[in-house]
Write a structure and sequence with these properties.
Number of strands of chain A: 8
Order of helices and strands of chain B: EEHEHEEHE
Number of helices of chain B: 3
Helix content of chain A: 25-40%
Structural class of chain A: alpha+beta
Distance between the termini of chain A: 46 Å
Radius of gyration of chain A: 17 Å
Distance between the termini of chain B: 37 Å
Largest interface: A-B, 36 and 28 residues
Radius of gyration of chain B: 14 Å
Oligomer: heterodimer
Strand content of chain B: 15-25%
Structural class of chain B: alpha+beta
């Protein structure tokens, strides 16, 4: 049985979440664009868990948005084996993967502009960092634990780098949206 | 500044000595070295090799699945961190550690890690294409 849980399941019960859960668990090997009929094999419990079941429903999948394009790389990093770095790192912390899924689900349809696809980097010891670079701007979101993100923004101005960093709660989606809107604004 | 009590900057490592760091292909967004190279949840300090005691080829030989080897000047590391500690190991006498000030928040260390990553210069270029961004 595969279980994925987070803090606010009632707000993120979207096709997207099912799609991600499928991919991360390896249930669905490929995703096609458009509306399609397929098995949905997760259900939500009141405690905030999604548990495998088997039902069938119509779902709308969009392969063209930045979130969907992030998933293959996230899936790869989610399945890194122990000692992937040759220095004894543990595999990726599953609670971090769940937090990223939560964040991505909260961000879908949040922007008026197309967000570029982030690069998903593993952090030694089981962490994950998302990175975006666009022009002279750079953003990093490092998932320190399941509830906390360390962020870095950098802008090159006349060969001088202007950095800003801090820690934000995963619940503070407005701050995350503000950072990504800053990245995409020329 | 807070450090592990047994770790300290080694004054015998000269400022102009390059330090070698093997770079994993997972940490190369768009072919650039990511700050994640210098971040770890399990070990605050970052392993490097002293160039006076080994070659970059020897560094890469110990990590055959890594993409390449980059170098940082000790002077640069000292500018942003508490320094470089010698940490020789039986199988790697060149081993040293870039020290992290443990009083720094994760966010502040991200700024340092980003600066270190941008200061790296390739000595052995990646032969494995990095994944697309």
């Amino acid at each position: 049985m595969t279980t994925i849980s987070w803090n606010q399941p009632e707000k993120i019960l979207t096709n997207f979440v099912y799609k991600v859960a499928d991919r991360i668990s390896g249930t669905i090997s490929s995703i096609n664009s458009g509306s399609q009929r397929r098995e949905r094999d997760f259900e939500v419990h009141s405690a905030g868990a999604i548990t495998k079941t088997t039902t069938t429903e119509e779902v709308d999948l969009d392969d063209n948005d930045w979130i969907t394009k992030t998933l293959p790389r996230l899936e790869k990093i989610a399945h890194l084996p122990e000692n992937w770095d040759g220095l004894g790192s543990q595999g990726t912390d599953s609670s971090i993967v769940q937090s990223i899924i939560f964040m991505l689900s909260q961000l879908q349809n949040s922007f008026d502009v197309d967000i570029i696809v982030p690069y998903v980097c593993p952090i030694a010891g089981g962490g994950i960092q998302l990175e975006w670079t666009l022009g002279n701007k750079h953003v990093e979101l490092e998932f320190i634990d399941k509830d906390t993100i360390a962020f870095l923004t950098e802008e090159m101005l006349d060969s001088e780098e202007k950095m800003r960093s801090g820690e934000i709660s995963l619940r503070n989606m407005n701050e995350i949206r503000t950072i990504l809107n800053w990245l995409m604004t020329s | 500044m807070e450090l592990n009590s047994d770790l300290h900057d080694d004054p015998n490592i000269p400022n102009d000595e390059p330090l070698y760091r093997a770079i994993h292909p997972n940490n190369l967004p768009g072919g650039n070295i990511s700050s994640s190279t210098f971040i770890s949840r399990s070990d605050p300090h970052t392993s490097v090799d002293r160039s006076s005691l080994c070659t970059p080829q020897q560094t890469l030989q110990r990590f055959p699945h890594y993409a390449g080897v980059a170098e940082l000047l000790t002077r640069t590391v000292r500018e942003w961190t508490p320094g470089v500690a010698s940490a020789p190991e039986p199988e790697n006498p060149a081993h040293a550690l870039i020290l992290r000030d443990l009083s720094l928040s994760n966010a502040k260390w991200k700024e340092v890690a980003r600066k270190l990553a941008k200061a790296c210069k390739w000595i052995i270029l990646p032969s494995i294409p990095s994944p697309p961004t």
